[in-house]
Amino acid sequence: MIRYTQPLIGSALAVETTPTRPRCRGYNLPVNFLVYKYLDSGPVLYKLVSFISVHEDQDQNQRVMKITALVHLVSVIYVVSVLLGMHEAVHGRLLSAKDKPSPKNAAATARWLVSQNSWGVLNTISGELGGAPFGNVVSFSDGEPGKGSGIPYFYLTTLDPTARNAGKDQRASLTISEHPIGTCGKVDRENPTCAKITLTGKLRYANGSPKEKEIAKKALFSKHPEMKYWPKGHNFQFFKLDIENIFLIDWFGGPKPLTVDQYLQAKLTEHAFNL
Question: Of 58, 84, 184, 233, which alpha carbon lies 20 to 30 A from 258's?
Answer without folding.
Answer: 184
